[in-house]
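2024-03-11 09:14:02 DEBUG pipeline.ingest accepted 1 chain
2024-03-11 09:14:02 DEBUG pipeline.ingest length=409
2024-03-11 09:14:03 DEBUG pipeline.predict start
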Amino acid sequence: MLNIIWLGFFFIAFLCGLYRLFVLGDNDVFNEMTLATFTLSKTAFEIALGLTGVLCFWMGIMKIGEKSGFVDHLTRFLNPLLKRLMPDVPDNHPAFGAMVMNLSANMLGLDNAATPLGIKAMQHLQSLNPHKDSASNAQILFLVINTSAVTLFPLTIFTYRAQMGAADPTDVFIPILIATYASTIAGLIAVASIQRIKLYDPVILSYLVGFSALIASILLYFSQLDQASMQQQSSLASNFIIFSLIISFMIGAVKKRIDVYETFIEGAKEGFQTAVMIIPYLVAMLVAIGVFRASGALEIALSSIRSLLTSFSIDARFVDALPTAFMKPLSGSGARAMMIETMQLHGADSFAGRLASIVQGSTETTFYVLAVYFGAVGIKKARHAVACGLFADFIGIVVAILVGYLFFA
């Protein structure tokens, strides 16, 4: 899928370039497209270089959190809920621990750490699957919850926003929290309706009501504030929670008599390796998107959507963030590149730049997660996993646009 998308950028850009050259008489179009390959290659490397220090720090902090017992506490807290959502999985099965670790990594915004944990969880669930080539109900539910991505601390997005010059990189925290929760609930309801999971079970209902009440109270509180106060207090809450998390991890590690400094260094080394690893992916996607935009193809598509919305008197400012939304279900690296490109073009603190960041944090990459997780255990029949995952994506993106207008318009 990613191969087709990447090639599509170049082929469509070439065709659009030919149209501009021979029909519109634009003699500079291929010069602009070629220049974009050099400019965006340099930009991709500079972004990755600037990310190195931030990634080292946060990967080090997260390693402390892992060894401090944070995952163990979260597993015990979520076990009653997971057992009722997945009745086919026996009590105390290792799949629960792997799933919680995967969800914890997603909550903390650690995409690279979440993937191997998710594959491990899927392998445990596959051992219980009587039909090895067809996804089980538990596997589908886990995958859809995973693709909807409950992101409590989208540190990667904060990092990119900081790199792109945002005055306050964390000011999108509360909007992302609301959007990602909406996508998760949508995915859960979609799967439950097909698998006949009784969401009105007292235990399930208590968790959902508790989580929903928390999100609703956050939304209600911030919706009553004026624009300036909303942004200021959202930023204050975000930074306070994040730094409190750091201190909590450290206190937990100290109580366990863990060498906190050495643990941090261990995680920081992984952060450095991650920064180096993403360079080829950033170069590939940013150059492809840059050529696509330089050819005029992207602007044609966005202008068509914008004109349609304007004809119905609909505010079309969100259209500038749609490239990230379109790419999100297909490619995580592609969506990330679209987000960066939007911030680079419009500014990290522009409405489009902030909205692209919210969209990026609202859901995971459905087709990538499905291909990797199901492919790792040899599942060929996804059943209702794709439909439920895409429904969660759609709801997450719609809510992301709505809260983007609420907080930043």
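2024-03-11 09:14:41 DEBUG pipeline.report The first helix runs from residue 2 to 22.
2024-03-11 09:14:41 DEBUG pipeline.predict end
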